[in-house]
Amino acid sequence: MKYSFVIPCYRSEHTLEQVVGELIAETKKQHLTDYEIVLVNDCSPDDVWHVIQRLSREHACVYGINLARNFGQHAALLAGYAKTKGDIIVSLDDDGQAPVDELDKLLGELERGQDVVYAYYEEIKQNRFRKFGTAVATWMSRIMLGAPEDFKGSSFYVAKRFVIEEMLRYKNAYPYLLGLVLRTTRKIGYVQTSHRERVYGTSGYSFRKLFSLWLNGFTAFSVKPLEIGVWLGILFAAIGFIGGLATVIHKIIRPSVMAGWSSTVCLILLMGGVIMLMLGVIGEYIGRIYICINNAPQYVVKEETPAKKERNGEKNENH
Predict the structure, then answer these.
(1) What's the Cα-to-Cα distance from 227 to each of 28, 158, 183, 238, rounded to whole Å?
(2) DSSP single-letter state for residue 199
């Protein structure tokens, strides 16, 4: 059985070599002789592409992909998946926080019949901003995408080949991997693992990038926002009808009381805000449809390292 490890790389020139070294050591420890490591440079501003090129020269199992611009983590993973040949695909980050030494737990759960297995962390070693982003993504996956109530995901997971093949059928410009997983299978397992401290640097996710990722999730794979708009419309229509009826009755009972201008202005601002919000959501859907119709690329590969050599046991690791 062949294993493929896919690592999206961004601002990781100081950590990537350590991650790859640990990964190779772990494959030897678990006697995984047939494997490949695909490193995808998501147009990182540091020198990570040169690190990838060097690792590719030093290890026959390492293969590098350089994207033309920053397309985001999920698009970078799909670019890596497209180059894999493995029966089992393992995804992990480049920051060294994923517990590679606990890979056997995920693989064991996969062997017990699951199609995808996620690692989840009892204690997340991230700042409050990233913890908030993780919490929102988990909530969104349950409410917007219909993920199981017990869903506990992370960027460290393993999947069977047919799941990856189905994910690669998605060619639009706004990929969201969990949405692709959920539309492929519901046989999803979870394994609790440790979460390491970041050894260098900070997360590459800003609020803008996180917000863009959330938008991808609930506009590409869910119409729940539009349903929410319908229910908001019904709610405010009912409130408006009841309020109007109450105003008429109040005027009949006490005709000398003047109408409340402040309450009227507040209602107008509230209703106007809700209308503009829902118009923005509809516009987001329409804009994404327009971009997809124009065949905007999911990612663009600028260059790759030389073709991967055939791997025979550990011979190619001896240089």
Answers:
(1) 51, 33, 20, 17
(2) -
Residue 36 bridge partners (DSSP): 4
What is the spatial distance between Cα 127 and Cα 207, in angstroms, rounded to a whole number? 13
Segment 105-143, tens digit of pLDDT: 999 999 999 999 999 887 666 656 566 666 666 667 677
Q: Token digits for 244?
A: 């109007």
Question: How long a stretch of residues is the chain?
Answer: 319
Report how far residue 93's alpha carbon sits from residue 146's, in angstroms, rounded to the nearest whole number.
25
Decide: residue 313, CB within 10 A, 0-12 exposed, 13-18 middle, 19+ buried: exposed
Span 231-253, pLDDT tens digits = 777 777 777 777 777 777 776 77
- CA 272 vs CA 12, 227, 232, 319: distances in Å: 45, 18, 12, 68
Closest CA to 134 of 205, 185, 193: 205
Residue 121 DSSP one-character state: E
